[in-house]
Amino acid sequence: MDFDYLVSCFISSFPDGFEGQEFHDAERGYKETAAHIFRQKRGKDTFETLLHDRRYALVCALAKQVVRSTNLVCRIEKAKFADAVGNPANHERFATALYELLYDSGEMEQRWGAFSGLLSEMGVTKWTVATYFQFLATDGKCMFMKPTIMRRMAETLKISLNYKSEPNWLTYSNLQELADRVELELRNRKLTPHSRIDVQGFIWASIEIEEGNYGKSD
Asked: 37 with 69: CB under 8 angstroms?
């Protein structure tokens, strides 16, 4: 399998590429809606007010809502995440860690490491959860990790993810490099993503189409 073949698979289902209504309806639209809701309801100022007022449960409730609103996280992991953030013992530390991940001024490596570490303590240390919120908050600039799909794309482009099942900074950094490369390859073929949300949509759709699985799983 090479990249051109994946592009042909993508175009077979989305002949107008990223400009078509088909792609918007199938891949972009619901993710952009989730991203908009998340940024609108948990923008920096609003988030700070909620933390100041110790309304941690509201932060957790929206986090659950946003995770449920897309199919990026599988049903089993959605349920585990909902249980974990629904536990009052986790409300304050999850809300605080999520704010620091998205808005703190420190180095991203430390912020993301602290967030991933908390997820581990909560029993939901999965790549999909560890990369979900910043993916939406940045319109995909911080790429989302669906391990099986991203590993297939890395193999196609002969890029090493240094993949480990436990979320770690080296793999996450390499994931961003993979996303850079995919976007470059798409632009070289006159396919112009609107944002990195489109890049993620292309990776997911093209590989699932190639495998005959597109539309059959969440």
From this structure: yes
Quote the number of domains for the chain. 1
Does the residue 162 lie in any domain? no
In a domain, 134, yes or no: no
Token pair of 201 as six digits: 């949509």
Tokens of 212: 């005959």
User: Which letter, b or e, does each residue of 150-163 get, where b requires 16 or more Cβ atoms within 10 Å of its Cβ?
Assistant: bebbbebeebebeb
For 46, the domain range is 35-124
Report the predicted TM-score, pTM, of the whole model to 2 decimal places.
Answer: 0.93
Rounded-to-integer distance, Cα 128 and Cα 132, Å: 6
Please state, as a whole number, how many other Cβ atoms lie within 10 Å of the Cβ of residue 72: 23
> What's the CA gap between 191 and 199, in Å, rounded?
10
Instruction: Copy the structure tokens of residue 133.
Output: 């919120």
Q: Please, what's the b/e burial string for 116-126 (b: 16 or more CB within 10 A of its CB; e: otherwise)? A: bebbeebebbb
The answer for residues whose C-beta is within 8 angstroms of residue 115's C-beta and 6 or more apart is: 97, 98, 100, 101, 130
What are φ and ψ of residue 50, in 5° steps?
A: -65, -40
**pLDDT for 54-96, tens place per residue?**
999 999 999 999 999 899 999 999 999 999 999 999 999 999 9
